[in-house]
Design goal:
The protein is α+β, with helices and mostly antiparallel strands and 103 residues long. The protein has three helices and six strands; from the N terminus they run βααβββββα. A six-stranded antiparallel sheet has the order 1-2-3-4-5-6. β4 and β5 form a beta hairpin.
Length: 103
């Protein structure tokens, strides 16, 4: 399930309302943070409230946890800590992109 964010922005696809609302919100956050949408895709949605994004042009990623209807928490995957946890919350999508380890 790869969905180009630029297609969402241009309303070229129709998906369920919750997913579409989340994607619109993520796009707005990305634009507010000065992140170019070119190449970014919704790469995976492993659960109803986790959205994984990937840009194959830059080999960069970030994840979003939808904690509540209007609360979006960026995450990155990094080195595992002492409890073997490797997914960590951050304040901005930009920070998640910078810290994300893509294998």
């Amino acid at each position: 399930m790869r969905i180009l964010l630029s297609e969402i922005k241009q309303n070229q696809i129709k998906k369920d309302e919750f997913r579409l609302n989340v994607l619109h919100s993520v796009i707005k956050i990305m634009l507010d943070e000065g992140i170019d949408l070119k190449g970014w895709k919704l790469d995976e949605q492993p659960t109803d409230n986790i959205f994984c994004f990937y840009n194959s042009d830059s080999n960069k990623s970030f994840d979003i946890l939808v904690a509540e209807k209007d609360r979006f928490i960026p995450y990155y995957v990094g080195e595992s800590d002492e409890q073997d946890i490797n997914s960590f919350p951050v304040s901005t999508i930009k920070e998640a992109i910078e810290k994300y380890i893509v294998e």
